[in-house]
Amino acid sequence: MVHNQVTIIGSGPAAHTAAIYLARAEIKPTMYEGMMANGIAAGGQLTTTTDIENFPGFPLGINGSTLMDQMREQSVRFGTEIITETISKVDFSSRPFKLWTEWNEDEAPITTDAVIIATGASAKRLDLPGEETYWQQGISACAVCDGAVPIFRNKPLAVIGGGDSACEEALFLTKYGSKVFLIVRKNFLRASSIMAKRVAACEKLEILYETVSLEAKGDGKLLNALTIKDVKTEEVRDLPVSGLFYAIGHNPATEIFKNEKLDFDETGYIKTIPGTASTTIPGVFAAGDVQDKIYRQAITSAGSGCMAALDCEKFISEESVN
Ligand code: FAD
Ligand code: NAP
């Protein structure tokens, strides 16, 4: 029977920051980094992108996979045990908590005194024809991350979605693009009224309401158009754009926790107690995108991973005193 003092589930910036802090505090954590968990390689979302230019400490930028390899190396250097398996089942109803990996579901569970959930999230996609070809070659799900790259400079761009993220991303992109189209499937924006007003007031932005996207087109290397359809008139046309940004929501990786007595918001994100990484179950902590639907950045994930480790360390030391 395997027992871990602290188990970290996940392998993005939140998980590795938590691991580094715990390992340096001489609490040897065990990390289950996942084996293509939720379709993403160990290392998380940053392994799906090229250069990261907004993570402090890298003035010339750093490749996303390289950054995650280095975080992993740092976790291991201080004594984190990393297991390349996906946690597929948990039971947090009593202590020690129980966990199963996808290969040991019929066997005795792994037990643990405390857990840090850092399973992240993934951007929803539309699965348009051409999407796979031009993903990260003009199509992105993060304007803040990718908007500043040269291929988008002074070019027409499009954002799909009608929520706060879509509005925020469209406004952000007006700094770089010659024009930004906001493609909204309904005849109104779901976004907050302040955001909707900002979008309406922006001269570089045009909202195409009641419009759906049909196909991403390009020259085989880079995106150069999006086929759209006006659902009222049924008119289909190609919108020439060099950049296409999806802002249609994210899915937090919380499926395996859904039967636990954790607090979730209406879209499935884990709620932590404000100002902490604690959840409603003592000994279970959450960090990174799995508990953050607003900021969703590597640096904010790393920051919350640090909080989770410090909260967890306090929990473990108080337990050993009592
Ligand atoms: P994630 O990075 O989401 O990683 C969690 C990982 O844990 C999963 O991917 C998986 O490998 C593993 N896992 C999940 N479930 C399990 C399980 N059950 N068992 C074991 N392992 C599991 N942010 C920036 O700051 N700058 C950027 O330039 C930037 N560019 C981006 C570009 C793209 C294309 C994308 C998609 C995101 C980008 N981001 C960027 C956002 C950033 O990647 C995320 O905010 C950050 O990675 C979230 O970190 P996380 O630790 O919460 O987990
Ligand atoms: P969201 O509010 O769920 O909005 C998603 C948008 O994408 C909706 O307009 C939705 O259309 C559209 N959409 C979904 N699937 C689609 C599809 N298949 N095709 C076309 N459009 C599709 O998500 P979000 O904007 O990421 O916001 C998430 C949460 O974070 C919200 O609570 C938001 O307020 C908050 N947030 C706040 C800020 C801020 O305050 N600065 C910034 C970002 C996010 P429908 O409207 O038709 O469903």
Task: Quickly list its features.
7-stranded mixed beta sheet, FAD/NAD(P)-binding domain, binds NADP nicotinamide-adenine-dinucleotide phosphate, 24% helix, alpha/beta, binds flavin-adenine dinucleotide, flavoprotein, 19 strands, EC 1.8.1.9, 322 residues, 2 domains, 7 helices, 5-stranded parallel beta sheet, Thioredoxin reductase
Low-pLDDT ranges: none
Tell me the overall shape. Answer: elongated
- Estimated structural class: alpha/beta
Mean pLDDT: 96
What ligands can be seen in this structure?
A: flavin-adenine dinucleotide, NADP nicotinamide-adenine-dinucleotide phosphate
Q: Count the DSSP helices.
A: 7
| Radius of gyration from the alpha-carbon trace, in angstroms | 21 Å
Beta content: 25-35%
Note the gap between the termini: 25 Å
Fold-level CATH name of the largest domain: FAD/NAD(P)-binding domain
What does this structure look like?
- It is an enzyme of class 1 (oxidoreductase).
- Homodimer.
- This is Thioredoxin reductase.
- Pfam families: Pyr_redox_2.
- This protein has helices at 13-24, 64-77, 131-134, 143-146, 164-173, 193-201, 298-321; strands spanning 3-9, 30-32, 51-52, 62-63, 81-83, 87-91, 97-101, 110-117, 121-123, 139-140, 156-160, 179-183, 205-208, 211-218, 223-230, 236-240, 243-246, 250-252, 284-286.
- The model has no long low-confidence stretch (mean pLDDT 96).
- Helix 1 packs parallel to helix 2 (64-77), helix 1 (13-24) runs parallel beside helix 7 and helix 5 (164-173) runs parallel beside helix 6.
- It has 2 domains: 3-122 and 250-321, FAD/NAD(P)-binding domain, CATH 3.50.50.60; 125-246, FAD/NAD(P)-binding domain.
- It is built from 7 helices and 19 strands.
- The protein is α/β, with parallel strands linked by helices and 322 residues long.
